[in-house]
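INFO  loader      accepted 1 record
INFO  loader      residues=193
INFO  predictor   begin
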Amino acid sequence: RLYFVLLTPAVLLVGLGWESLSQVNIGQVRFRILLGAVIVLVLSLSVIQDLSSIARSESFGFLIGTTPQVDFLDKNLGWYSRATRRLYDLPQTEKILVFWEPRGFYMPDNAQADVWIDRWYMTFQEDQTSEAIIEDWRQRDITHLLINLNGMEYEKENNATYQDESWVILEEVLDSFPTPELFGDEYAVYTIR
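INFO  predictor   done
INFO  writer      dumping tokens
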């Protein structure tokens, strides 16, 4: 979205480029015709790609009402859709913390998405023991955790800002809760009681 501001100058540059290149001839071939053919080819391939993507997502079926919303979301959002639907089964008074999942769409209002993907990092910096972390959550009336397991693994393998100790503490915290409800191998919902 932030790059839309650059579209106007880019269009001017493309127009100037088109104007100067369209006057070039290579032998008997006008460069304008060759360039125009390439542009039409690229636009055609883009339209074909977009139409096939729309067809795979079953967007049209959803828009005309032949595909139910639940089926549409399950197909396009995968386990995320099922996990967030589970959060709606919880009473509205429950508070849910989300880890390593920045998307907040289709989550209930009582769930707090991890927009900056730093919730565990900040939690560990504030309270560096499993007991202190759990106590802090209980004082804040947090009742459930939704964890994006793929996001957690990615951060564990690729983000050097986390200390190794933080992962040990996370494991201690999660082991202190009942067995989580798993959604595929992507999401886990923990109950804090």
